[in-house]
Amino acid sequence: MQPSDSVMNLRQVFVTVLMFGVAGLLLFMYLQAWIEEHPTASGEKLQQQIINQDSKLPHPEELATAPKYQSAAANLNKRRTTVIMGRHSQEKASPLGEIASSLVSRLSEQQKMTEAFLKQQVNLSPVMRPLNKSLIKDDRWKNIDEAQEKRRYFLYDFCKKYSSENRLRTHLVRMVSRIYVEDRHKILYCEVPKAGCSNWKRILMVLNGLASSAYSISHDAVHYGKHLKKLDSYDLKGIQTRLNTYTKTIFVRDPMERLVSAFRDKFEHPNSYYHPVFGKAIIKKYRLNAHEEALKTGSGVKFKEFVRYLLDSQRPVGMDIHWEQISRLCYPCLINYDFIGKFETLEEDANYFLQLIGAPAELKFPNFKDRHSSDERTNMEVVRQYLKELSDTERQLTYDFYYLDYLMFNYTMPIV
Ligand SMILES: *[C@@H]1O[C@H](CO)[C@@H](O)[C@H](O)[C@H]1NC(C)=O
Ligand SMILES: *[C@@H]1O[C@H](CO)[C@@H](O)[C@H](O)[C@H]1NC(C)=O
């Protein structure tokens, strides 16, 4: 064999290896871009999986934050970091480095474009639009309107101060993933669980012509039916147009009330998703000498155990939208909500909002509680009883956990 032949062979082998490397990288990037653009598609696949495994349908919201999905996302992120680091170390040594680095720069250009879009649309100059009150004819809404304007200015001022330094950065699609669309009356509603969201979805379905009365829609139809569209199901232009022209609303609730309400709803009643998925992991990690039965079923989680999980930087299971901070569900400083309702004045706020957007006069916000309706509603007195189970430090840390929600919506920590 001639020496030049073996050099050729080596070269060929090297080139082949390079080509495979580049092809793999391209495939990986394509998949990653695809996954990022199709969060709902993977969610649906997961939903299908869970439906196949489990005869009782899980709440669709539960799927978005299901641990499987989260750990897949975490792995993806880990992989992405590894790959990028690997690329950098190869950059100088081989032509693959050059190709890879041009790919990386193209990818980061994409990211920059998304960021530029964010800045331009919602981030840079958060102008507060005046509420269009041309449909309000009488002054029985005067007090509610004054409270509304105060809240709007309060949040606006807070965001101006807060955002200058600490801008929340996120993908546009993720940012709007909890927002429901009602095209007839041009409404965007960001869903905050445990703050009247089931009844809000009922109202949106009626406004959209999907039902004739809010009272005729069962809890399951509200949450499992695929009737209302989410904002992230539109293309960039569709999202942009709606963000700029629709009336955007959010309904919030005192953070501790929301937390206790979520705990009572998910852990104090039989639940085929929260007990096996969250309950088991919580009891395993935070209960000393747990009984075998409790470890097996995940039932009987105590509020204190639940809070220890919430505050743990190494949670054995991920977060869940029912106790996720509102600031991370709805991004109130990025999306300039036009109308801020509060659970504490839910019916008045909601009915005023319905007037503003020109809903049919007979449509009123329903006042029923459709889950565990015999339980006492979670009010401040109930919350205090639960908070008493915590130490002072745990209470303070829980407050810190919801700090932004407290600040944005002018809530104060309850005195226990
Ligand atoms: C306010 O709402 C009314 C009724 O929907 C509409 O005709 C009018 O154009 C709106 N005004 C502005 C400034 O958007
Ligand atoms: C904020 O809350 C305090 C205490 O509840 C209240 O007195 C004040 O009016 C609120 N401010 C706004 C802007 O709503």
TrEMBL record:
GO cellular component: Golgi membrane
EC class (word): transferase
UniProt entry keywords in alphabetical sequence: Carbohydrate metabolism, Glycoprotein, Golgi apparatus, Membrane, Signal-anchor, Transferase, Transmembrane, Transmembrane helix
BP GO terms, sorted: carbohydrate biosynthetic process; proteoglycan biosynthetic process; sulfur compound metabolic process
Localization per record: Golgi apparatus membrane
EC identifiers of the protein: 2.8.2.-
Membrane topology classification: Single-pass type II membrane protein
InterPro entries cross-referenced by the UniProt entry: Carb_sulfotrans_8-10 (IPR018011), Sulfotransferase (IPR005331)
GO molecular function: dermatan 4-sulfotransferase activity
Residue ranges of the TM segments: 12-35
PANTHER family recorded: CARBOHYDRATE SULFOTRANSFERASE, CARBOHYDRATE SULFOTRANSFERASE 9
Similarity comment: family membership: Belongs to the sulfotransferase 2 family.
Protein name as it appears in the record: Carbohydrate sulfotransferase
Organism: Chrysemys picta bellii
